């Protein structure tokens, strides 16, 4: 129907904007590094913060949307994302940029899990899979076009222009969601929020990444790397135990008994494992080592 198509375009556009911002920022890392006279290991956190916070809080905000209303949380997330992007554009130092990047990523974590949920709830059962697949195509297109968009902006302006551009798109998205996305008849499922489970993920994911970073630099036997990796393992194990016992878990672990579900998650994980390091480090290599332009 026309309503479903309109909703697909609205939510798909949001997915496009968010995913393109992730990959466009990666292209800007060498410029950020030069401006702030920072090391690559410091600058990489500008990109990694987006992945860490999104991965850690996506499950929580999916549940928050069920309890308080998906549309309301999605709108709030777009506002936070836009605010963070505009503040990133005027950041005077790298620590300030990282702080505002975390704000931007927080908004993304609120929007990403709810777009598909809003679309699924509004779609007819026979079209649900088709519309969710089309929405995922918007996200994939955004991730694919992000480096080109970022490279063009860097050629005519600076890395701050990428954040201004994302903030401008976010402003348009805010207006569109508040005007066209209505929350009146939205179904809610009241219940408890597993804040402790989300906190455990926030401990486990950064610890794992920091441990691998220290391990690649100093060896896995390094005390700092060992502590971080041990903390990551403990956090993930504690999260699994928590989800098995909590009455309203963020992640139903029994779903992994289904072969189709486990295979799909494994495929997504393998794709991210291969793709994300390439999108992060190849732009840096091309610009700093081969001295090619960002575009």
Distance between the termini: 40 Å
* Mean pLDDT level: 82
Helix content: over 70%
Counting helices, strands and paired strands, the structural category is mainly alpha
- Helix/strand order, N-terminal first: HHHHHHHHHH
**Number of helical segments?**
10
Shape, please?
globular
User: What does the largest sheet look like?
Assistant: none
Beta-strand segment tally: 0
What is the C-alpha radius of gyration, as a whole number of Å? 20 Å
Low-pLDDT residue spans: none
Query: What share of the residues does DSSP label as strand, in percent?
Result: under 5%
Query: What is the subunit arrangement here?
Result: single chain
SSE arrangement:
Elements: H1 2-27, H2 29-36, H3 40-68, H4 70-89, H5 94-122, H6 128-156, H7 159-180, H8 195-218, H9 223-245, H10 259-288
Helix pairs in contact: 1-3, 1-5, 1-6, 1-7, 2-3, 3-4, 3-5, 3-8, 4-5, 4-7, 5-6, 6-7, 8-9
Short description:
This protein has 295 residues and is mainly alpha-helical.
